[in-house]
Write a sequence for this structure.
């Protein structure tokens, strides 16, 4: 089986396990922002937000760039897409299973009705 | 699959949800339009289970399916995927079997790092609320499964599936 770089995934999921960091990603999905903007929006200290952004950056979910004295953050799209794709595939697997399960139970229900009539 | 089915009234597809509940857990929920006793049967009789567990639309061919559904009993599913050179086997052991409300089994194909799957069948006004809960021994184990999953299906298969799922439901 093809091995996927483990460390990236570990980092991604660690990054996504925190509500504030998911919020930051959502926010950056709408518009790029500076760390100061983000700290204000999430009512956090600058240091606190720097830590969160650092985790996201390490996971490749966010990229930052220092312009003058301001550090701008934006989404590192590739990683997000990969995570989302996996969940999407998992969802589709179950959707396909349930569609076929629906058919199986419909048949069982019909069979039960027919058998029930026979017994009468 | 069979076109003769088109004449039957089509049932509305029920909503499904998939959630990564924590770093070790995945939860899938879905309502099935039949009472638990019937749905449970579809999960525990091999001849029924094999008809839906490995979806044809995923390009998978099931080679064998053996279920010994009792506490301590084992199961083994072998299937082939066009992208994989060798057939793949999924196997494990049933830890709990409580008809028609609960099934718990292990997934042992990955050695000791496999998840424990708990399925509950809750009666809801004649229908069944299914909750499939996968609990991994560690965050790393789930991440590894995800890593394997992201590469074991090819995009072409998913494009085909997309098309299939986007087909309008007749009626």
């Amino acid at each position: 089986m093809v091995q996927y770089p483990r460390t990236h995934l570990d980092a991604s999921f660690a990054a996504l396990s925190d509500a504030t960091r998911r919020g930051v990603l959502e926010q950056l999905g709408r518009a790029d922002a500076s760390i100061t903007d983000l700290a204000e929006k999430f009512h956090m200290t600058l240091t606190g937000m720097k830590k969160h952004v650092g985790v996201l950056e390490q996971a490749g979910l966010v990229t930052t760039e220092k312009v003058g004295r301001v550090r701008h953050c934006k989404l590192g799209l590739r990683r997000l897409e990969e995570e989302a794709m996996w969940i999407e595939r998992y969802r589709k697997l179950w959707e396909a299973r349930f569609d076929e399960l629906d058919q199986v139970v419909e048949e069982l229900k019909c069979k039960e009705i027919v058998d029930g009539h026979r017994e009468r | 699959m069979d076109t003769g089915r088109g004449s039957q009234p089509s049932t509305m597809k029920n909503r499904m949800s998939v959630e990564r509940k924590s770093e070790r857990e995945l939860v899938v929920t879905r309502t099935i339009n039949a009472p638990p006793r019937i749905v449970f049967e579809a999960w525990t009789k091999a001849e029924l289970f094999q008809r839906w567990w490995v979806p044809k639309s995923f390009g998978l061919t099931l080679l064998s399916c053996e279920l010994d559904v009792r506490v301590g009993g084992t199961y083994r599913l072998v299937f082939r995927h066009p992208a994989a050179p060798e057939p793949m086997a999924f196997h494990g052991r049933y830890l709990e079997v409580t008809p028609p409300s609960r099934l718990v089994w292990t997934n042992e194909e990955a050695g000791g790092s496999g998840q424990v799957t708990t399925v509950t069948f809750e009666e809801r006004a004649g229908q069944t609320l299914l909750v499939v809960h996968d609990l991994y021994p560690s965050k790393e184990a789930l991440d590894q499964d995800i890593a394997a999953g992201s590469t074991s299906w090819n995009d072409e298969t998913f494009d085909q599936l997309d098309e299939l799922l986007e087909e309008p439901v007749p009626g």
